[in-house]
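User: For a benchmark we're assembling, each entry needs the component sequences followed by a predicted structure for the full assembly. Here are entry 17's components. Please fill in the structure.
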Amino acid sequence: MSGCFYGVGVGTGDPELLTLKAVRLIQSADIIGYLKIESGQSLARDIASQWIDKQTELPIHMPAMSIQREQIKQAYDQAAIAIAKQLEHGKQVVFLCEGDPFFFGSYIYLYQRLSKNYHCQSIAGVSSIHASSALAGIPLVQQNDSLAVLSSRNSDQELRYALENFASVVIMKAGKHRQRIIKLIQQSKREKDSCYIERAGQKHEKVEHNINNLTQENGDYFSLFLIVKNK
Amino acid sequence: MSGCFYGVGVGTGDPELLTLKAVRLIQSADIIGYLKIESGQSLARDIASQWIDKQTELPIHMPAMSIQREQIKQAYDQAAIAIAKQLEHGKQVVFLCEGDPFFFGSYIYLYQRLSKNYHCQSIAGVSSIHASSALAGIPLVQQNDSLAVLSSRNSDQELRYALENFASVVIMKAGKHRQRIIKLIQQSKREKDSCYIERAGQKHEKVEHNINNLTQENGDYFSLFLIVKNK
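Assistant: Structure for entry 17:
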C-alpha cells in the first residue's frame, strides 16, 4: 500500500500558529519535505523545527525566483519523482508549507504532479491574510463586505478595479512593487484605509499603519497591503 | 491592571485544526465566551470543548438571525458590558470564534465595542475558505491568480463581475441563495469550475463537485461555493 502525501500548512512565522493536526502529522511522518532556497534557508522548516527530530528530511533545493521558469519546473519535477518513490515504499510524506498549502502554496506544484497517482491531502493552515489582519488589529471582512485578494503580479487596471469596488483588498507579494502599489492606492483615494505588513509572526515583523511613511526602497518578499474600508 | 480580551479562531469544525496558541489561551483563560443560538447550540464551544474544564463560561445568547437587527445589537452591547467588567477585574477573557475571528467573525462586533478602552487581541485561525479548499482537494489560488470572496448578500451584478473577472471566487453563506447563485454561475459559464461545500470539518460535511446535482432546496448556513479556474 502506498503512503500519503500531505501538504501541511505551518502558518506565516509564529510556531504557535501550527494546528494540532500539523504537529501530529509532522511528528508521525516518515519523510519531511520542504523548499530550501539558495541561501540555505527554509522558512517552513524553521517554523516547524521543534517537531522535527528523527524523521528523514527531504529538502527541495529551489533556484532563486528571478531565474527562468524552466529550472524551477525541473526542481519540482525531480522532487515529485523523489516523493513518489517514497510513497511507493509506503512512506508517509509531509511537505511543510508556509501559510495554507492551497493558498499560493508551493505544495500546489507537487500536488498537481502527484495527485493523479497517489493519495494526497492538504492540511489547512493559517494564511498570511489572517495572520496579518490579526497582527495589525484590523478586522478583514464583516457583514456585507467583499474581499479581493490580488498580488503585485496583477495589472494596474486589475488592482485599480479592486481598490475602487471592494470594501477589503489584500495585495500580496507587495515588496518589490511597493511604490507602484502606493501610487494606485493614492489614485483610488484609499490611503486612510491602508496598512502595510511584512513578515507577520516572524522575528522582524513590521506593521506600518500610515503608508505615507514608507520609504522609496523595495520591501520584503513576505509583505502585503491590507486595504479595509474605515479600518 | 486590566485583562486582555482575546478573539480565538477555532476553525470550522475539526477540533484538530485548533492552533497551539488557541489551545494554550483557552486552557489558561479565566473566562470563556461564545455565542449560543436559540436552540442552545454553540458550534465554537463544541469545537473547543475538550479544552474547557474549570474556566468560567460566559455564553452570549443570540436571537435568531432572522429577527431584526436591533435585538442583535442589544445582545452584543450587553455582552460587551459583561466582558468589560471581567477585564476590569484583571481577568483574561477568551471569546471562541468559528474560523478566523477577523474574517466575518462575531468577535469583530465585540472588538469594535471594547478595543478603544481595553487590550484586545485576535488570534488567527483556519478560515472556511482554507478548510473548504483542503476538503475539496482544490487549490484555491496560485501564481498570478486573483481571488474574490463575496457572499450571498452581494448583488447579482457584483457576483457576476467577480465570476467573469477573477480566476478564483468564493461565495460564502450560500445555502439560502443556492438557486440564485447556481444560475449566476451558469450564466458566467463557470459550472465546470464550481464546487459546493457544506460544514467543512463537521460531522455532516458535504462536497458536491458537480453543482448540477444540487437540489432545488435551500442549503445549510455554513456553506459556500468555490469557483476555481480549471479546478
